Amino acid sequence: MEQQFNAFIENSIRKNWDLNALTDYNGATLQYKDVARKIEKIHIIFEESGIGKGDKIAICGRNSSHWGVAFLATLTYGAVAVPILHEFKADNVHHIVNHSEAKLLFVGDVVWENLNEAAMPLLEGVVSIQDFSILISRSKKLTHAREHLNEMFGRKYPKNFRTEHIDYHKDQPEELAVINYTSGTTSFSKGVMLPYRSLWSNVKFAIEVLPMNPGDKVVSMLPMAHMYGLAFEFLFEFSIGCQIFFLTRTPSPKIIFQAFAEVRPNLVIAVPLIIEKIIKKNVLPKLQTPTMKVLLKVPVINDKIKESIREKVISAFGGNFSMVVVGGAAFNQEVEQFLKMIEFPYTVGYGMTECGPIVCYENWKRFKPGSCGKAVQRMDVKILSPDPATIVGEIACKGPNVMLGYYKNEEATAEAFDKDGWLHTGDLAVMDKEGNVTIKGRNKNMLLGANGQNIYPEEIEDKLNNMPYVAESIVVQQHDKLVGLVYPDFDEAFAHGLKTEDMERIMEENRVALNSMLPVYSQLSKMKIYPEEFEKTPKKSIKRFLYQEAKG
Question: Does the predicted model carry a pTM greater than 0.70?
Answer without folding.
Answer: yes
